[in-house]
Amino acid sequence: MSKTIIELQHVYKKYDDFTALKDINFKLNQGEFYTLLGPSGCGKTTILQTIAGFTDATSGQVLFDGQKINDIPANKRQLNTVFQDYALFPNMNVFENVAFGLILHKVKKAEVAERVHDALKLVQLDQYANREISELSGGQKQRIAIARAIVNRPKVLLLDEPLSALDAKLRKDMQYELRSLQQNLGITFLFVTHDQEEALAMSDQIFVMNKGQILQKGDPVDIYDEPINHFVADFIGESNIIPGHMVRDYEISFLGHTFECADAGMRPNEPVEVVIRPEDLVITTPEKGKLQVKVSTQLFRGDYYEILAYDMQDNEWLIHSTNATTDNAIIGLTFGPNDMHVMRYNETEAKFNSRLETYEE
């Protein structure tokens, strides 16, 4: 059974009349890669700063290895933080930057040299010890920042959007490196990002946040395939989200048609929203399609075509297909019961009914 290394219990953070965190509760197990994912201003960095000790919770408890650490200063906690801007010292070379924390804690000189070498080797920069910071690329600076964090042998590494300043290719390369590094070290990573692809690629568990709250926790596949509400479905990847209602278990109605689905446990005629991912829509002839749409435009994305189309009620549909079509073509769309994910409608029924009437006119 995995051991809990960090736990937050009913944590709130308030700034005057603004509540940045609302009743945050979660546990992080030792040796796993966690991601806090959400838009800017949702509270994910505030959680990181609260765990690190850079900010105090207004109420609630932060536990580390079972012990409350709310009143323990940041420099006494057994964790380190990697920042978005690297926070390297420009007047020190690579070795001196990585060794800084060890020297501060009066580690013996021989041990400092050994641990710095080991940390630089882990990030594949052991030949760069004497380089000046100004001589490094963005990706190299990021790896030096990580080496400086892991040289202290923390039990937890906090990473605050550390890849956001890198170009697309380097960012993807660093995703592989970070995941590999976490697995090799066997320590807990808590990673903050607003990039959905980044979170899905690297994480064991994802916490999806919005407006100071954790909306859903799960592994990447669960988060992508089983979003809990409209926000999660819309934020995690690309989605077609359609209002409808459950006719009965395993049967759903939307856009004036009734379809077999894989969901059950809701009330008969309960208002719902249906999520269909673009890659789950299959293009066919209009007469064979469950729905008919008119193609507006398409873009070639390398391994698939991204097609934008509209149905007869002028609702937008996004389709990913390996087959090209033509602008203004009428095409059919088909999908199976397992290609639809049904969510309870989380707005008022009045608003739902007005939208539904628009679709069924």
Fold topology:
Blueprint: E1 4-15, E2 18-29, E3 33-37, H1 44-52, E4 59-64, E5 67-68, E6 79-82, H2 94-104, H3 109-122, H4 138-150, E7 156-160, H5 168-185, E8 188-193, H6 196-202, E9 205-210, E10 213-218, H7 220-225, H8 230-235, E11 240-248, E12 251-254, E13 257-260, E14 271-276, E15 282-284, E16 291-300, E17 305-311, E18 316-321, E19 330-334, E20 341-344, H9 349-360
The count of β-strands is 20
Radius of gyration: 25 Å
**C-alpha termini separation:** 55 Å
* Helix vs. strand class: alpha+beta
Do you know the CATH architecture of the largest domain?
Answer: 3-Layer(aba) Sandwich
> What summary fits the major beta sheet?
6 strands, mixed
- Helical content stands at 25-40%
Q: Tell me the strand order in the biggest sheet.
A: 6-7-8-3-9-10
Kindly provide the name of the CATH class of the largest domain.
Alpha Beta
**CATH level-four homologous superfamily name of the largest domain:** P-loop containing nucleotide triphosphate hydrolases
What fold name stands as the CATH topology of the largest domain?
A: Rossmann fold
Count of individual domains:
2
Shape: globular
Strand content: 25-35%
Stretches where pLDDT is under 50 for at least 5 consecutive residues are: 348-361
